[in-house]
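Researcher: Here's the sequence for the chain we discussed earlier.
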Amino acid sequence: MNTEDWKETFPTQTSQSLPKEVWEKKLLENEKTAPVPQAAAEPEEPTAEKLADNPEPPAQEPPAQKPPKPAKHGSYRNLWSFLLLLTFTVSAVCGVLLVLKPGMKCTEPVGKTNTKGAFVSGLKSSGEGLAWIKVRGVIAESGDSGPFSRQTGASAIAKKIRTAAADDAVKAIVIDINSPGGTVASVQNIYSEIQAAKQKGKKVVALFRDVAASGGFYIAMAADKIVAEPGTITGSVGVIMQTNNVEGLFKKIGVSVTPITSGKYKDIGSSYRPMTDAEKALLQDMVSETYGQFFAAVKAGRPGVKPADLTEYTDGRVFTGERAYKLGFIDKLGGEEEARLLAGELAGLKDPKILSNRGESLREAFFSFGSNLEGQSLAKQLESLTTPNVSYLWSN
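Model: Thanks. This is the structure I predict for it:
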């Protein structure tokens, strides 16, 4: 209580006119009876009567929520890292399974063999039809043997023919050829598989594309019928053996090769020295014998060709599909549709559908990169240069 308040309380008296004990006593009494400020008063506890009048307590405003913090870039990075790791793991597991069990099928129980429709993408066929098998490029055995290599070349083609021949749903096979030929053994392997398929009751039609020469022409001799376009290049019935001589190149760079052999003909066809006349005679006998096999296959496969034309047009020359049709080397001019209908006619199918196999399967695609790298290696290129090959090949 200040001086002004004390004067208002005691207007007629001053602090100086009263004794000290009296005004101290008045001051204490005044402080006791003074009203308590509203801000300092304690909150009054609710009674039972007040609660009965107001059953619901007054609503209180909820505390203000803080805005969410923006997501950090680190969380997105962690998510992408996890997805990449998961993808890599799944790919690795699938690769291992394909390597260990490349022939495993998910549609058939283990231990069961399906002889009907096995050619059609690993699934059971709903009908009968044709197997369409392509022969592309030089026909030869693949030299890839690495862990990431795939089976290609003549063996893969022969396997497809065997698979089609064992399938009861396949009534005819179309051999789609676009090839200048290949090595003797690889060509004869495919030729023998076609003959085996015919022995199992399959009808075979050969289709010539841009080029079906030499070894490509050879394998068609095993077919029942042959179809070609008028402008197809075919023929080239014959055998060729090529050797390389790098002796002059080695002399320039100061390299010499000294072979040690068990006999005088062991290094016949060597690329590091000229060939002797005796060696040429031996190789010529081998080429002539191999040519005789080719000629016999053409004579057996095309019995309608005149002997004079057979002798004249099997000297290594090439000719068009139209000329081949006139001479009797092919049976019909046309393309895919003509080959399909002709194969269906031979098999007794009015509108035959094509039951092609899986072609480029997942396993082949997975290992194609490794095969390409291995085929392009320096060692493979040198091997192809230094190893002589006897081939049914149209080469220029």
